[in-house]
Amino acid sequence: MDVKVQELIERIEDAELVLAGIGEEFQYDWNALLKDTRYQEIECEIGDDERYIWIVPFLQKMILRRGREERWDRAYQRLEKLLAGKNYFVISLCIDDYLYDTGLSEERLVTPCGGFKKMQCDKNCTGELTEMPEESYQSVLRYYKKEIPLADLEEPVCRRCGEKLRFNQLGVQRYAEESYLRQWQSYTKWLQGTVNKRLCVLELGAGMAYPGIIRFPFEKVLYYNRKAYLYRVHPQLYHVGEEIADRSVGIAENPVDFLGRLSFSDKDF
């Protein structure tokens, strides 16, 4: 077994708390959608017509439901096993919602970039979130299957103000941060309790897309907590600063593959 893998398992076992950060390199590969022949046809049919751009995230959600790859399932299963029985918190930049299918407690998860679980008004008129209209999803699915024409699709709108509904994801016109703020407060409170504790920090694929959410804050935790130890896994940006080099290790590997290499025999699960 890989020495670094064994060391990580042993350090997590010894830690009083475990902090895991899942970055953009862990995100599901949307190129799977681009490889879909029917999606290519849809792109040509829509063209530059902005009236139908809204169906793209519905198609993404469909791919997430139907085209899930085993390597992501295996990686998240290993993460859940690693954290089992520990006092942990997980922060993720991914919007594919796979984290919520792992068996990890949702009370110990925070996803500040949103996902496909809820929708919001494009203008965020109330700060409230809504369930995805299943009829809209089914209509897009029927269009994908060529059962109805493009012209039959109707974009879902906010019941309060009539503006367009969007999936609650960072990047919409007025992102409704209300979706994650309660969990973010729980996360920051939990983080305060890690001071001077044996803390194992596992950073999985966090690059420079949003370094102020995972990468830089995690380094700050290491800087102030001399009992903390960091494992930074990233295919390119795995380096660590000199000020924390004695309590961290960089692993040049795809984080999904790295977790997938853990076998059930590596730990007494």
Provide a brief overview of the structure:
The protein has nine helices and nine strands.
Task: Provide a descriptive summary of the structure in words.
Helix content is 35%, strand content 17%. The model has no long low-confidence stretch (mean pLDDT 92). Strands 3-2-1-7-8-9 form a six-stranded parallel sheet, sandwiched between helices. A three-stranded antiparallel sheet has the order 5-4-6. It has 269 residues and is of the alpha/beta class. The relative contact order is 0.19.
Distance between the termini: 17 Å
CATH C-level name of the domain at 1-28 and 69-112 and 177-269: Alpha Beta
What composes the largest sheet? 6 strands, parallel
Number of helices: 9
Order of helices and strands: HEHHHHEEEEHEHEHEEH
Q: In percent, how helical is the residue content?
A: 25-40%
Strand content: 15-25%
Give the class from helix and strand content and strand pairing: alpha/beta
Q: Enumerate the spans where pLDDT stays under 50 for 5 or more consecutive residues.
A: none
CATH architecture of the domain at 1-28 and 69-112 and 177-269: 3-Layer(aba) Sandwich
Question: How is the CATH topology of the domain at 1-28 and 69-112 and 177-269 named?
Answer: Rossmann fold
Principal-axis shape:
elongated
CA radius of gyration is 20 Å
Average pLDDT reading: 92
- CATH superfamily descriptor of the domain at 1-28 and 69-112 and 177-269: TPP-binding domain
Strand order, main sheet: write it out: 3-2-1-7-8-9
Q: What is the tally of beta strands?
A: 9
